[in-house]
Amino acid sequence: MQELDIVILAAGKGTRMNSQIPKVLHTLAGKPLVQHVLDTAAGLSPSRTHVVIGHGADRLRAALAASTVSFVVQKEQRGTGHAVAQAQNQLGNGKVLVLYGDVPLIRRESLAALLAQVDEQHMGLLTVTLSDPTGYGRIVRNTDGEAVAIVEQKDADSAQLAINECNTGIMAMTSSQLKRWLPRLSAENAQGEYYLTDVIAMAAGEGVSVCTTQPATAVEVEGVNNRAQMARLERVYQQQLANSLMEQGVALADPARLDVRGKLSCGHDVFIDVGCVFEGEVELGEGVRIGPYCVIKNSTIGAESVIESHSMIDSTVAAGLNQIGPFARLRPGTRLAVKAKVGNFVETKNADVGEGSKINHLSYVGDAHLGRNVNVGAGTITCNYDGANKHRTVIGDDAFVGSNSALVAPVTVGKGATIGAGSTIAKDVSEYALAVTRSRQLEKADWPRPVTTSK
Ligand code: UD1
Ligand code: CA
Prior knowledge:
- It is a single chain.
- The chain is α/β, with parallel strands linked by helices.
- It folds into 2 domains: 4-221, Spore Coat Polysaccharide Biosynthesis Protein SpsA, Chain A, CATH 3.90.550.10; 227-435, Hexapeptide repeat proteins (UDP N-Acetylglucosamine Acyltransferase, domain 1, 3 Solenoid).
- Helix content is 16%, strand content 32%.
- It has an 11-stranded parallel beta sheet with strand order 12-14-16-19-22-25-27-29-32-35-37, with helices on one face. It has an 8-stranded parallel beta barrel with strand order 15-17-20-23-26-24-21-18. Strands 5-4-1-6-10-7-11 form a 7-stranded mixed beta sheet.
- Strand 2 and strand 3 form a beta hairpin.
- The N and C termini lie far apart (102 Å).
- It binds uridine-diphosphate-N-acetylglucosamine (UD1) and calcium ion.
- Uridine-diphosphate-N-acetylglucosamine binds next to strand 1, helix 3 and strand 10.
């Protein structure tokens, strides 16, 4: 395999975002724009990937610390040609592909098609035909229809401005071609910049054919310059994702009201109601139903589970046939065995809930282990924190915890035990015992209620 260097331009400021955050770090589907480009680039198995940074360089380095890219600093932004030239000394001997860090939806297939044409006699240029080409570099062709130059909007004459075929900025060539052309760029143009686009005329001048290809849809090569474009591309991305989920057999109440910020895998006949957000890696088993306005992050929800509206679920594993919500909050480390039920206004954290156990209303269960068929009454709290350390609550199979109980951990409630409502349980409860800590009810017969006295 021939070597491949990918150069991603990301030094620009992104003034029109009106943001302190470098443009390419703004997120689309929960992921920085430039990370989308990097992920797509990785699909081409490059020998090296270079990211040209300038504005917000430190933030970019930090944000991409986990990637195996090399950073090239462009101190002053003197044009796209100048940007690529910064990476010149690090290029290998094979092909070079130039991408933009603010063009997130480019597909690997389009890039592969472009690269396939490159050799010492050919370079590749990705173009797009737009009804409104304003702002873009125009593709100038000779009478034989060969691309021979790119003219920037600001340098174009009226005939060139009428051209609808535009430069996407994405191009590919051999490393030796690029190294030959870059030193010959000049900044004698309307913007006083070193235009990468000038290499097209150099190629044509040397008899290197400029092979143009177009992406399947124009949105692939759309760049982000402002928040409105950002929001538009987000919707496009989400719609594509929704379409692919529906093709896989997922029922979406409204494909326009779904947000996936990560990877969502679904079994057959999953139903997702409106306004749900999925983050990180989420797996939904067959027949799972998600009510409206749920947020689910890094979780696995087993088959035939029902999640009612407005539930928030993070780093949870639900085995299947579970009922969750409405308004449930399942925090990291929640594990629900089959048929376990967590109802409204219940918060769980680092909790194992055994098969068939129920926590139906208004409870907090944290750092706890519940056996099978435990019933936790409304308003039960595991007091897991003593102000310094966290402690565990263990509740055995078939135990019944009466409403409004406080379980002061560390504490164990034995199998089959019953806790009377309103108890504060600070000592272990034996199997099958009844524990009640509330004071006895007092009754005074025919008690005369106080009356208001006049002053
Ligand atoms: C560029 C192209 C134009 C094309 C358009 C597509 C040139 C001269 N023009 O124009 O033909 O139609 O893209 O969007 O190439 N960048 C740097 N360093 C720089 C300058 C730019 O890293 O010194 C990066 C920017 O961050 C951005 C990308 O390169 O990601 C494009 O730069 P931009 O200034 O937006 O180029 P355009 O003028 O739009
Ligand atoms: Ca641009």
